[in-house]
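Database export, one record per block. Field names are fixed; values are copied verbatim from the stored entry.
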Amino acid sequence: MLRGMSDEATREPRSFYRIGRLPPYVFAEVNSIKAEARAAGKDIIDFGMGNPDAPTPEHIVEKLREAALNPATHGYGVSQGIKGLRKAVADYYERRFEVSLNPDTEVVVSQGSKEGLAHLSTAITKPGDVILVPSPSYPIHPYGFIIAEASVQFLPKDFSHPDPLAYYITQLKEALENSVPKPSVVVLNYPCNPTAECATLEFYEEVVAICKAYDVVIISDLAYCEIYFDGNPPPSILQVKGAKDVAVEFTTLSKTYNMAGWRVGFCCGNPDLVYALKRMKSYLDYGGFLPIQIAATAALNGPQDCVLETRNRYKERRDVLVKGLHEAGWMVDNPAASMFIWAKIPEKFQELGSVEFSKKLLREADVAVSPGAGFGIHGDGYVRIGLIENLHRSRQAIRNIKHFLKG
């Protein structure tokens, strides 16, 4: 029997099997301290969550408004997404990557790429399947599969290695050769959240060749492909000849168009995997609100100067933060893409670990970051700094951190 609401304050929550497979939420401790500090009147400069702070471009919002005023758009939609939006995604891939996609069989719209990844994990996984996921990684990459009762094998990243991509290839080959049972899925994420690492087309070619040889599915998360800074647009794995035989790729409008709360993502590529996701979604949802899908179509088909403005905004923030942190004595890496700085904890605080360091930084410098442990145990010596505060507040954070590091 479920306990009553009157017991809520005095009892532990009832346990459930799948919830029990999820670890404690690492970010909760930092978030709790952050909330307490704000309640006490402190001005916390928050680099924690990757939440775009700029408004959605006006022409996209106007299209939403126009569509929402039409009563015909307020009924049920279709779980795979409207045809116009799927075609707009296919056109985007043609323009950006020179990749041809059939909007009917190789594109499905999801309510954010996170939802799509979770539902695809459920659709293609049976209990005991082995899934290869890098560590650290964005939490849905392993836990979507863990919820689906798979066994996740982590491939730890070596940030000191002179060629991290080559190191990953070595690990991938070893895992595919030695794991029992044989892995069924490989998860990739470049530009990476949280580490900001980028991949090359040559790297994707090698991964595709390996996975085809072992008959393994590839799921690529390309959410940050339009947030790049140094003139080298990140490639798509679907640019590799034959990639669609084994791979699908997730993209999203969240970061590109400042539409995080709109929840619009896409899964593209292998028709069997796309069909599996469509089939699963047909039991779970009716697709996003139609005016949102119509506005998302306008985003992809409309003027793209807003994308350049977004990219430049993040680049300016990156430059200010990296330069300022270096001057403060914190020698963080300079990311080539994404909206994050993956920062090794300063030497004198290394023994604290990422959670305690993040709490100390919050209490003593009024600056919030994400502890690397939240992205897996191999991230524990790092924190993730989001490029989500304006230049004025970023400079204030640098002053606070400089004082903190000297203390």
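Remark 1: The two ends are 54 Å apart (CA to CA).
Remark 2: DSSP finds 13 helices and twelve strands in the chain.
End of record.
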